[in-house]
């Protein structure tokens, strides 16, 4: 029985994985951003015309992303990075404009990086942790726990006031077990 070897890329998921390995916009991981679906980045503004800024001058945009981290990206979309501090984004832009210099434009809109992150690689895990904690602490269960704990503290304070006139507080520590200092 003479069988023809199967092509690995005939399955749709394998084709998609092969495309994702070569296409930087489809990669997922800590150093890159997925551009399709929910994580689609906002549109970066076009480069200003030659009457405002000569086309030969390198231009970098600096803005904050949706997680309040700083993003630096060149106007052509070749290089970019995400940073914790604004100074780090400025430094990245200046390093990539060397030796000729260039222009830096600060944007007020919140824009996500749409190229591979060449900045701080710890930003993606930090953003993930920030989103996770935000989801966790906005859950109704946590809210009920927080409310119940606040009520318990209020009731305890009222009991201390009624029993001790506010002069003493309840303690769960047994002082008889502690050594006495003389």
Outline the structure in words.
By secondary structure, the chain is α+β, with helices and mostly antiparallel strands. The chain has a domain at 25-43 and 55-136. Helix content is 34%, strand content 13%. It has helices at 12-22, 86-96, 123-137, 140-164, and strands spanning 59-64, 70-74, 80-83, 103-110. Strands 3-2-1-4 form a four-stranded mixed β-sheet, covered by helices on one side. It is rod-shaped, with a radius of gyration of 28 Å. The relative contact order is 0.11.
Silhouette? rod-shaped
Tell me the major beta sheet: 4 strands, mixed
Query: What fraction of the residues are assigned to beta strands by DSSP?
Result: 5-15%
SSE series: HEEEHEHH
Count, helices: 4
Poorly predicted residue ranges: 21-41
Terminal Cα separation, in Å?
Answer: 96 Å
Q: What's the rounded overall pLDDT mean?
A: 75
Biggest sheet: strand arrangement: 3-2-1-4
Structural class: alpha+beta
What's the gyration radius in Å?
Answer: 28 Å
Number of strands: 4
Helical content band: 25-40%
Give a short synopsis of this structure:
The chain is of the alpha+beta class and 182 residues long. The chain has helices spanning 12-22, 86-96, 123-137, 140-164, and strands spanning 59-64, 70-74, 80-83, 103-110.
Keywords:
4-stranded mixed β-sheet; 4 helices; 182 residues; alpha+beta; 4 strands
Q: How are the SSEs placed, and which strands pair?
A:
Layout: H1 12-22, E1 59-64, E2 70-74, E3 80-83, H2 86-96, E4 103-110, H3 123-137, H4 140-164
């Amino acid at each position: 029985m003479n069988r023809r070897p199967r092509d690995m890329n005939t399955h749709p998921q394998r084709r998609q994985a092969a495309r994702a390995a070569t296409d930087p916009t489809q990669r997922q991981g800590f150093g890159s951003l997925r551009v399709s679906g929910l994580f689609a980045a906002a549109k970066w503004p076009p480069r200003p015309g030659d009457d405002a800024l000569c086309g030969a001058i390198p231009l970098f945009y600096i803005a904050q992303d949706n997680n309040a981290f700083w993003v630096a990206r060149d106007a052509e979309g070749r290089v970019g990075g995400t940073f914790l501090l604004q100074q780090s984004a400025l430094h990245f832009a200046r390093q990539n404009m060397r030796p000729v210099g260039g222009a830096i434009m600060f944007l007020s809109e919140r824009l996500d990086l749409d190229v591979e992150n060449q900045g701080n690689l710890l930003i993606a895990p930090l953003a993930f942790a920030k989103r996770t904690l935000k989801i966790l602490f906005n859950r109704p269960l946590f809210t009920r726990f927080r409310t119940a704990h606040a009520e318990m503290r209020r009731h305890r304070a009222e009991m201390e006031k009624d029993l001790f006139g506010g002069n003493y507080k309840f303690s769960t520590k047994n002082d008889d077990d502690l050594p006495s200092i003389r």
